[in-house]
Design a protein that fits this description.
71 residues, two-stranded antiparallel sheet, 3 helices, alpha+beta
Length: 71
Amino acid sequence: RLLNIIKVKKPTSLYALAKFAERDFKTVRDDILLLKKFGFIDIVQGKDPKTKRISHKPILNATTIHIVVRI
């Protein structure tokens, strides 16, 4: 679901992503770090022009994900 929100709504920060997902910031952050570890997303650091605060914007790397399960 987070990958879809990043693709469709293009949040400008992890906080905005948590609001779009209607989830707690800490759990979203943990999930984002896991997705980054596996290479599905990148996190770009930038400054909010209004507040001058540093934000971390999630960027989608993959457009398609193929899952292979061998049993």
